[in-house]
Amino acid sequence: MTSHIVLDRVSKRFPPAKRGGDEIVAVDDVSLAIEQGEVFGIIGYSGAGKSTLVRLINQLEPVTSGAITVGDVTISELRGKRLREQQTRIGMIFQRFNLLTSRTVAGNVAYPLEVIGVGRAERTRRVEELLEFVGLEGRADAYPEQLSGGQQQRVGIARALAANPQILLADEATSALDPETTAEVLDLLARVNRQLGVTIVVITHEMEVITRIADRVAVMDAGRVVETGLTYDVFTRPQTATAKRFVQTVVRALPEGDELARLRATHDGRFFTISFTDEGVSEARVFSALAKAGVDFNLVHGGVDDIQGRVYGLLTIAVRGEADAVARALDGIGSGVTVEEQR
Ligand SMILES: Nc1ncnc2c1ncn2[C@@H]1O[C@H](COP(=O)(O)OP(=O)(O)OP(=O)(O)O)[C@@H](O)[C@H]1O
């Protein structure tokens, strides 16, 4: 794969909010390479610098130091007309859609084409094609306020794609939508990525969005990128405390502390954690192997998650029985699982 967006030691500082106050370091010495054609997620606490980082990629904000390269162009060095030209190659969508309320759906989608001087006939053709792509054929003459949130975001996506960008930046693009509409918009973004080959950078506080569509993810904390990896790896084996906090909101973690004590107080037997990342293993296979071995057990914590369409199982079971029988039962689960006793 070739890198599409490269950040080399990029920092962004804002002047202090109050005179004599401290400068705000929104992005702090970040180096990052986003590959051609991938969906790249950025997660982190509020104020970690995610939005600022994304606004640096299309130079809505100039960098304070460092360089940003998009394709073979160092966008952070450009000014004026040449910068604006490059900016049209990067589409952006927002949480609040940011549509022009006085323009129709077609007028909104046509807007970026007018700005770059595309003629009327070509504009009409392109708008029609885009509305069909996002599933809004027949709504060209509607006004944004007549549309649902999901439909408005589809218009936002059509508008962002109008000038055939190679990159789409999505800043909390599904955060104002209900779960069902979110799923539809994510399906559309996946099509934008796969069918049009557009590289997508997604910022979100919704971890389900990341586990559904992001190939890789970066975790930000106080302006820095503290962890990067394949989404599956970061969500199954987070390395930093910040990543763990986010991952735990969607992926079942091991019981610890008070929770573990409470489970021990209410369940007899030895506790084992069975984890599997293998496609061939299922919760049912684990349970039937234990049942067949004739030991008495029950599930006390955990379950199976889906990350990027791959399984991740983390089951904590309480097992009662004679030591040999327990060992045989656990052996009987077979390959593809890791068994660890919680002592
Ligand atoms: N234009 C600006 N002027 C001054 N400070 C800013 C500006 N934009 C962002 N900041 C500050 O930079 C820091 C990072 O903000 P940013 O919005 O990038 O974080 P974020 O991770 O996207 O947070 P959120 O999820 O809340 O949007 C914050 O301290 C914020 O107050």
Automatic annotation (TrEMBL):
UniProt KW keywords: Amino-acid transport, ATP-binding, Cell membrane, Membrane, Nucleotide-binding, Translocase, Transport
- What is the name listed in the Swiss-Prot or TrEMBL entry for this protein? D-methionine transport system ATP-binding protein
**Entry's family note:** Belongs to the ABC transporter superfamily.
UniProt function note: Part of the ABC transporter FtsEX involved in cellular division. Has ATPase activity.
- What Pfam family is a match, any one? NIL
All copies of domain ABC transporter, residue ranges: 5-247
- InterPro entries the UniProt entry points to: AAA+_ATPase, ABC_transporter-like_ATP-bd, ABC_transporter-like_CS, ACT-like_dom_sf, MetN_ABC, MetN_ABC_transporter-like, NIL_domain, P-loop_NTPase
Q: Which GO terms describe its cellular component?
A: plasma membrane
SUPFAM superfamilies in alphabetical order = ACT-like, P-loop containing nucleoside triphosphate hydrolases
Q: How does it assemble?
A: Homodimer. Forms a membrane-associated complex with FtsX.
Question: Which processes are annotated in GO (biological process)?
Answer: amino acid transport
Q: Which GO terms describe its molecular function?
A: ATP binding; ATP hydrolysis activity
